[in-house]
Amino acid sequence: FIREVSLGANPRYHGPEALIPSFTIRFYRTRQELLEDFNAKKIDGTGGILPEEADKLAIGHRLASFYLPRYYALFFNRSTNPALKEKAVRQALARAIDRKEIVQEAFLGFAAGTLGPVPQTAEGYDENAYAGAATDPEAIGASLDAAGWLMNPEDGVRYKTEGKERMALRFDVVTPDIPFLVKTMDVVARQWKRIGVRADAAVTDPEEIARTALRTRNYQMILYGNVLKGDPDLFAFWHSSRKFYPGLNLALYDDKETDALLEAVRKGAGGPTERNDALGKIQRMVGNDAPAGFLMNPAYLYAVPTGLKGMPETPLVS
User: Fold this and answer.
1) Left, alpha or beta for 2 (phi > 0: left; psi -120 to 50: alpha)?
2) Model-level pTM?
3) Which pLDDT tens digit goes with each residue over 240-255?
4) Strands annotated E in the chain
């Protein structure tokens, strides 16, 4: 087991002499050992701090919060559940999500709510695209009533009858077996219950999800994350040509006008202004069509001594 790697400044470097003469990276078998050494001031910094570990840090340290260009969302597969073909249902599901509640309960405040396919820290984010997106449960219930989805007083789940077929707003959600995602799904399921929707989490090992659900697209909904790598190119996640494996269009979203805008953004034609205009239109169209319920962007937490300088809390790319 490699315990540490020590690095020294190169005395033959052609430029100015390094201001940091040495740097040591230490490795730990357990998170408990790492936190103990950090609190004993045997190490000066550590990344990947979990929200529940924040109050375990000794006095004299601070948490630096960084946001990456990413988001988690519940992607709706309208090809496997007829109820999800209705825009009114998808809009109700997306608008019933209380992101502040998710951030507090699943992340103890160390996250930011996400409303659409462009994270707040990424180029092209348009806050005006989400004006008026928040809707209260009563208004959502009224919209579902108008769409013919009636509340069943026996089980509290809405249903609709078409011909001889009776459909219920009951969904299975493929959820990676990662604690903060399981907790997030618990919160969302409780929120959806308020509007007459039942969601059952199918908690699955992430590697198994990669081998099965992502390959076959055999899910009603899936809780998953997208990372933009610092470039607001959404092509890989929302273009119709990426609906099937190994594509990353997990909502199987297919809209010709959106496709054209995604292609324009990828080409970068017209410069930054036109590109941002296209991104704004994409955010409005995806928000209106509701192919997914956008959730949150967890903060990346890095613990450092309070006196450490030169560490601005700016957005990270990776």
Assistant:
1) beta
2) 0.92
3) 999 999 999 999 999 9
4) 4-8, 22-26, 46-47, 61-66, 70-76, 111-113, 150-151, 158-162, 165-168, 170-176, 198-204, 221-227, 292-298, 300-305
